[in-house]
Amino acid sequence: MAGMSPIFRRGSAPAPQDRLVTLIRKPGCHLCDDAQIVIEKVCGELGVPWEQKDITQDADLHDRYWEQIPVVLVDGARHTFWRVDEQRLRKALTA
User: What is the pLDDT of residue 16?
Assistant: First the structure.
């Protein structure tokens, strides 16, 4: 069926490079540093963009997440907090 455009299923997961991981952290937090190492590794291997936000610079993030940092969001939804499991993050980004 040459010349036909590919069919994409509705509801299929976005490609890893179309995802976004957000690390919400604070300065001097050793768990945040550990989380960043895992995020850098997984996102680097999968080509997933990531960002970090400082909870001390954002009142809304502070109010929502202060007792949970570090917090990891995938596409804006909370994925995990305190400790980041490499396999679980990888699965969330590729499923």
Answer: 82
In contact, 69 and 56? CB cutoff 8 Å: no
pTM of the model as a whole: 0.84
Domain that holds residue 70: 16-94
| Residue 90, domain CATH | 3.40.30.10
Q: How many domains does the chain have?
A: 1
Question: What spatial distance separates the first Cα and last Cα of the chain, rounded to whole Å?
Answer: 29
Query: How many CB atoms within 10 Å of residue 25?
Result: 23
Instruction: For residue 42, give the 3-state DSSP assignment.
Output: helix
Look at residue 28 and tell me if it is in a domain: yes
d(CA 73, CA 75): 6
Tokens for 71? 């917090």
Q: Over 60: is that where the pLDDT of 65 sits?
A: yes
